[in-house]
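User: quick one, fold this
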Amino acid sequence: MYALDRRGRGGSGDAEQYVVEQEFEDSVALVNSLKEPVFLLGHSYGALCSLEVARRTTHLRKLVLYEPPIPTGIEIYPSEVVTRIQALLDAGDREGAVTTFLQDIARVPPHEMEILRSAPSWSGRIAAAHTSFREMRGSNVWATTYGHEYRT
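Assistant:
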């Protein structure tokens, strides 16, 4: 089993400028480097990346997409929330940005927020706060650029 630390997360480096297509190519490079065709699981924005991997390689056995942020006629990321998250990041309030994302976008209930805050992974969420914002933008880019190819 392999787990990819996407750009700006975990042990992975980051780029000065974020380009959504590079996320796809990073994942394709990992998949293609493995000996056998793989079972690929992507969650949330990672599901969009995984979907694009499937378009760019034949080295997959199975593909599982869990909660991809694919717009289906509803606004996934309300503009006022996006503006608030950007303002929090600009002010250096990474925890506020993560909390706002989880409460207002993911709609995590208050009792679960407390569990998340007390988990060892909370500091990693704070460290990667900037990635949530760019993934919201990346989802919009994906929907505009590629989304029409998946509509019936």
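User: anything notable?
Assistant: The longest strand covers residues 60-66.
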